[in-house]
Amino acid sequence: MANMTGLGTQTITSANNAFKLATPDKYISLGDFINGVNKPDNRTQLVKTFGNQGITGFLQLVGAVKTAGTADEVQWWEEQRLHPQATFTATGNVTAAKAITIPFTTASSGNTFVLRQNDVVLWNNTQRAIVAAVTSATVTLSNLADTNLASGTSGTTYNLPVIGNLYGQGTDQPGQYLESNIVRRTNPYMIIKEIFKVTGSQATNIGWVDVGGGDYRWFIKGEADTRQRFIDKREMMMLLGQKNTNASPTTGFASGAISGSEGYFAAIEDRGLVTNGYMTDLIDLDTVITALDRNGAGPEYAVYVDRIQDLAFDDLVARGLGGASLTAGVATQFGAFNNSPNMAIELGFKSFGRGGYTFHKHDWKLLNEPTLLGTSATDVSGGAGFAGAMIPMATVVDPKTGNREFPLEINYKSTNGVSREMNHWLTGSFMGATNSTLDVLQFNYLSEIALVTRAANRHVLIRRNA
To answer: Whole-structure pTM over 0.90, yes or no?
Structure first.
């Protein structure tokens, strides 16, 4: 007979006992018990409900280069226009006459002192006048034609192009000369951080979901998502960051305590070209092209846009001009892709030409994501915000060094083999970490970076409707 030691302590009516009497009222309880211990028909694959949610890659695709830095800010040099205008604000009304004297204050003079006696300027954009006299408070213009110069209005800012000068026979050389100007631009580095934690118990738990490669530990998914969020936020700060100039900040965040860093969009807003509203008609594109001409732009542009602007460009190209293709009469350039249209297609670009420019269009996932720069998942109007950017795909000459540089440059702190481009380290007491007594593993992320936007006047920021 089998040894039954211990059975005397069990009760067949216990809710935890699988031993049931074979009576009809027990069948239901038996089914409940079996359902409780049956393994579910589980599908281990993790469903990507929103597709690939990573939004990085813009800076690399448009040719942004990486450069190591060794100071708290990066500086670069940009030349001024070869032919500066005389800009000033009149402090009094000016009556129309053959010779007019325009008063202004030294504080509002701006570039007025590029004016010299005997310079020839355009007044009212059409009338040719010679500078008869110029002081720190007034400038006197005399019309070269025997007619009145147009009147001026107090408080109006005037821009006078200097088209040349005139001197009489036997006169001396000018007493003053113009020195070439250069602008020093700086951008502080910004420090971005993130962490992820897991306890020793959680690190050894096996779940129902395959998070990749046959690994069922859920913390692997959490760490991978944290890393992707960190990389995304690092790129978004380079795109959307701004210098901290708040004079009345929250305590502890005064300007200088956290300097902030100028992002790509802020650089264009400060000194570039900004459109207000989606570009839906040919006149919208032509207005931008005209502005690019004024700023000495190169022939090729990468155009990253949200879906609404993407479709608007498709419609615009399909309509063309009078039914003709926008590329008619234009040799579309593919220099940025080694003159290979197939390479542009492989990278997801669609190209079209207009007015001697080639635009390589690409959908920008960041601007479509409703939890980031996109509008809500149900909004079909576009709303407010950013619709895209046009990035020149050509090098820029540095006037200080003569070097040819890329329009966008990602700078990161690095020296003597120590790089802060993408730091990742572990603190804890397991998985190789031995620098803590806590039964916790912490994943640490840090990056110290700054973006340089050269010649921002050649870049275009496209805003949405509002």
So the answer is: no
User: CA dist 158 to 138, 144, 167, 253, 464, Å?
Assistant: 13, 19, 25, 40, 31
**CATH number assigned to the domain with residue range 86-179, chosen from the 4 options 2.40.33, 2.40.128, 2.60.40, 3.40.50:** 2.40.33
Among 267, 342, 275, 335, smallest CA distance to 305 is for: 275
155 touches 406 (CB < 8 A)? no
Reference 395, options 294, 288, 299; nearest CA is 299
CA distance linking residue 276 with residue 462, whole number of Å: 7
The counts of H helices and E strands in the chain are 8, 23
Q: Closest Cα partner for 45 from 223, 222, 219, 207?
A: 207
CB count in 10 Å sphere of residue 254: 13
Comparing C-alpha atoms, which of 456, 347, 448, 438 is closest to residue 68? 448
**DSSP per position, 362-412:** EE-GGGT-TTTTS--TT--S--SSEEEEEEE-S-EE-TTT--EE-SEEEEE
Amino acid code (one letter) for 42: N
Residues (pLDDT < 70) of the chain are 1-39, 41-57, 60-63, 106-113, 248-256, 320-349, 377, 380-382, 395-405, 466
C-alpha to C-alpha distance for 273 and 463, rounded to whole angstroms: 11
- Residue 393 has φ and ψ, to the nearest 5°, of -105, 60
pLDDT at 426: 94
Mind giving me the DSSP string for 239-254? Answer: HH--B---SS--TT--
DSSP string, 19-60: ---SSHHHHHHHHHHHHHHSPP----BPP-TT-------HHH
